Amino acid sequence: MRTAVVVLNYGDPDDTLECVASLERSEDLDFDLYVVDNGPDDEKHAALRDAIGERGTVLATGENLGYAGGNNVGVRKALETDVQYVWILNPDTRVGPRTLGTLIEHLQAYPDCGVVGSRILYGGKEPRIWFDGATIDRTTGATSHVNNGKAPAAVGGRKVVDVDYVTGAAPLIRRAALDHVGLMPEHYFLYFEETDWCVRLQDAGWRTMVNRTASMVHLKRSSGSLPQPYYIYYMTRNRYGFARDALGIDPDASVAHLQETFLKAWRKKVEDGAPAWLERFDELVTMAVEDARAGRFGRNDLVTHFPRAEESLAGR
Fold first, then answer.
1. What is the average pLDDT value for the chain, to the nearest integer?
2. CATH of domain 3-218
3. DSSP secondary-structure letter at 184?
4. DSSP labels for 7-73?
5. CA–CA dist 227, 312 (Å, integer)
6. Predicted confidence band of residue 104 (pLDDT cuts 50, 70, 90)
7. CA–CA dist 240, 104 (Å, integer)
8. Distance from C-alpha of 222 to C-alpha of 208, rounded to nearest angstrom
9. What distance in Å separates the CA atoms of residue 124 and residue 149, rounded to the nearest whole number?
10. How far apart are the first and last CA of the chain?
11. Which range has the worst mean pLDDT, 108-122, 251-265, 298-312?
């Protein structure tokens, strides 16, 4: 059964090209490659298209459509063919030679599994787990990665597990599940798309699983000691929408929980590392909640141009 691989590029293509190179070292090469350039058809897009060449199809979205919107351009194109599986890969992932083959074997062994993920490690000399499955607290809307930060050798237990959701960094999706439930929702723009989609998948009777015998690396280019404005805004706004729409719980209570956990921890880091940015941090949170309550989802260009915490350090 043939697989479509969708890699979403945004900006500099170096990570995307390295991701594709790791993919081409796979033992299972029976796949069609779709590289979606999440932006205009310009000189950078032409350079990416030339670099991919005949190895795959390169598509320009015309503008930044976000995670689900961009990936869905490639998924829709793939579903015009007879592929049975779709593998979405973040450009800063690096797959192993057996990753794809193991995940395909999993879906063949579990016909009621709609999506499967692998064990994903942080990049670095000392391997540490970034994703080994995930949980959703359906009373608060809180989400968490299983075994995050642990050494693989220190983690025992089952190798094949049911999980509450599979990270959007590298889900292998069964076509029948897409035909049944539809594509990932695009209104979030960034964060919670795959979480919402996995909940809907489970509600429709499909299993969401992780096979820890398959492994890969996520370089986590977007991580840092200080939060990016878009991270705080979309995580807050979308938590409200996820709680309300996917879980059917009180969204204000869910955001209040977020305030006492996720946001409180990040605010402390800002207070310690860039105190001049605290007012901006609070402004982002307020804007996120107000937008969510007003039903304003999708891309927010105000956040795109919002001053970053690092910029406040330049005035010290």
1. 95
2. 3.90.550.60
3. P
4. EEE-S--HHHHHHHHHHTT-S---EEEEEEESS-SSHHHHHHHHHHGGGSEEEE-SS--HHHHHHHH
5. 13
6. very high
7. 34
8. 26
9. 12
10. 59
11. 298-312
3-state secondary structure of 132: coil
**Cβ atoms of residues 35 and 59 within 8 Å:** yes
Q: Which residues pair with 59 in a beta bridge?
A: 36
The pLDDT tens digits of the residues spanning 233-276 come to 999 999 999 999 999 999 999 999 999 999 999 999 999 999 99
Average pLDDT (135-161) is: 96
**Single-letter amino acid code for the residue at 215:** S
Q: Residue 57: phi, psi to the nearest 5? A: -100, 130
CA distance 281 to 304: 14
d(CA 17, CA 114): 28
3-state secondary structure of 120: strand
**26 has a pLDDT exceeding 80:** yes
* Count of beta carbons in the 10 Å neighbourhood of residue 304: 11
Rounded Cα–Cα distance for residues 167 and 145 (Å):
9
Rounded (to 5) percent helix, strand, coil in the chain: 45, 20, 35
CB 119 within 8 A of CB 147: no
**What are the residue ranges spanned by the domains of the chain?**
3-218, 229-313
The 10s digit of each residue's pLDDT in 37-93 is 998 888 889 999 999 999 999 999 999 999 999 999 999 999 999 999 999 999 999
pLDDT band per the 50, 70, 90 thresholds, residue 222: low
State which amino acid sits at residue 192.
Answer: F
